[in-house]
Amino acid sequence: MGELLISATDWQADQLASWRDRMLKAIEDLQKRLSGQFLNALKEQPLKRYLHFHQRYLIHLSDRLTDLRSQSAGLSSTIANVINEVLEGIEKVLDNAKEHFGEGFDLSASVSLYHKERSAQIRYSFSIPNCDQRTYGLLEAVANTLNELTEPNTQRKPTYYEMLFAHKISSIIAQLLTMTAIDSRLLFDRLYMENFNAPAFALWYQQDVLESISGLDGAARKQFLNQEINRLLLTGIPPRQGFHEDRLSINEELTRWVVKVATLDTGAVQQLPLDLSVTQIGLFIRLCQQTGCFHEQSISGLLRFFVRHFTSKKQTHISQKSLAKAFYNADQTTAATCRAWLQRMIDQINKRYFP
Fold it and tell me: Coil, helix or strand for 159?
């Protein structure tokens, strides 16, 4: 690979073909060695270490080639196509190992950049003709969560486990959508039992509960919340490992939240008015997200939080769709206004702390 990194832009056709053939031959030989080792009676731990080493190496190699193809303006289309051919060969080895080698394959490892790029071509979208707003909102929250895994504008790479979980959730929803009668409650219960502990999923449920109790008096509200606690506890115990391994199970997270709401005995969400337009809010959220201000990784979860807790200069209710549009498509005028706000903040810091 070093040859390609150093002088690929000067290669002739025969040199390029030779490099491609050697790379593909090396990939084929590695595939044979992996298959041979796993057919032998190796002990479990040595077997796992053997495969994990080659898995990490192949992902690293794939990422280097993807970066080279993306960042090198001098590469010809012929060289780019050859790199794609080699990348595809690497992915076939990884896919084969994931499919056939079971626990020997490290599902917690991040996929390659090429795998993410290839997967981004498939966008999840779920729809039911004439469905109610609650069901539509839930389907949108799930689709946004799954699509964020391969969002091109984020540097984070999903893990193999997350990609498999996303495919499982998509298959479950596709099966449910074939039923004659489906609503948000049925859909929620099914994903809840799978421990789909995505922030957007939890936030949808919380918003749904708060809307349900907003018009109830104290006694009716308390009764509703107690029924929700019992329903969450009795619906089913989710699997130990959820969609996000570093988050609480959806059972524990939502049960705690409903208990807290019931204890506080409140059904209203206080919103903070901002002296900013929707487009300015969207750009500020994007800047904070890209610079690591938020621990939360889910973009749809962030947008839902701001929709729920803030109002803009001219709108008492911000739609998530309009905020998402502002997040991804701010114009130069909005950027100039936000830059002025940020400059005033810097001026205040300099005045107070660096006189």
Answer: strand
Gap between the Cα atoms of 68 and 71, Å rounded: 5
Beta pairing partners, 310: 272
pLDDT tens sequence across 231-243? 888 876 666 688 8
Residue 306 lies in a domain: yes
Burial label, 72 (beta-carbon count in 10 A; 0-12, 13-18, 19+)? middle
Task: Please give the full DSSP string across 215-240, using - where no structure is assigned.
Answer: T--HHHHHHHHHHHHHHHHHH-PPPS
Q: Which two tokens stand for residue 125?
A: 């979208």
The pTM score is 0.63
Residue 185: domain span? 133-264
Q: Domains in the chain: how many in total?
A: 3
Farthest-apart Cα atoms in the chain, separation: 81
Domain endpoint, select from 119, 151, 172: 119
Give the C-alpha distances (Å, rounded to integers) separating 130 from 133, 136, 162, 172, 181: 9, 9, 31, 20, 12
- Residue-wise pLDDT for 253-309, tens only, equals 899 899 888 887 554 556 788 889 999 999 999 999 888 888 777 788 788 888 878
| C-alpha span between 97 and 87 (Å, rounded) | 16
Pair 280, 259 in one domain: no
Tens digits of residue pLDDT in 72-125:
555 667 777 778 888 888 888 888 777 777 667 788 888 888 888 888 777 777
Q: Are residues 260 and 282 in the same domain?
A: no
Cα–Cα distance list, 99 to 33, 44, 161, 166, 294 (Å): 16, 17, 13, 16, 35
- Alpha helices by DSSP H, the chain: 2-7, 13-39, 44-71, 77-100, 113-119, 133-148, 160-176, 184-193, 199-213, 218-235, 250-264, 278-290, 299-309, 320-328, 332-353
Q: Tell me the three state secondary structure of residue 310.
A: strand
Chain center to CA of 311:
26
